[in-house]
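Changelog note: in this version the structure field was regenerated for every chain. One regenerated record is shown below for reference.
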Amino acid sequence: MQLDTIGKNIRKYRLMKKFRQEDLAEKAGLTTNYIGMVERGEKIPSLETFIKILNALEVSSDMVLTDVLETGYTVKNSILNEKLAKLAPEDRSKIYEVIDTLLKHSKQIAP
């Protein structure tokens, strides 16, 4: 299990909010050093601390845990579907063509 992705995702959402580590630490009631350790995967926050971080970032747990949970790909797919739905049809078609090409050249698991 790659628990370091939790920290990477926290960092991703922190940067999306244009927060510095200091900003997130202050909003969550934590230290800047602790936020840095979590983002680097050196520490895994307790449930209580994890909730504080999520609330400070205003994101849901499934967004941060998407690469850790087995159902994470379902969440990721739904996020991608939402993004694709906002595109113009011709752009969406180009993206599907790229995906089809990648799938043709990937190591697929036989059914």
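Spot check on this record: The radius of gyration is 17 Å. DSSP finds seven helices and no strands in the chain.
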